[in-house]
Amino acid sequence: MKQICLVCQNVDCKSRGSEEIMKDLENRVTDKGLTDVEVRPYMCFGACQEGPNIVLYPEKSWYAGVKREDLDGIVGHLAGGPDVKRLDTIDASLKELIYQLLDTGVF
Ligand code: FES
Hints:
- By secondary structure, the protein is of the alpha+beta class.
- Helix content is 36%, strand content 18%.
- Strand 3 (54-57) and strand 4 form a beta hairpin.
- Helix 2 (18-31) crosses helix 3.
């Protein structure tokens, strides 16, 4: 199944480097040959103070406060490795809300 890696590109996440993180992630996904992973920008997940935020869908994993040095672990996860638990810090109710929104096809 294709995994979509949504990287928030709204103001707060961008001010913390999400643009560079998205480019770096795209390059790493390509370099690793992960053809079933697509990196896409996202408008805002509503956790702006905790960004940069990345959500994997349809898997439904949320990584918050992502730094470039975290990308090794995230790409490892996308390649089938363990999830990066230390970046899973978002409140469960917000996660559920965003996952429901994504389930309705809002990308
Ligand atoms: S600015 Fe990224 S979650 Fe809102």
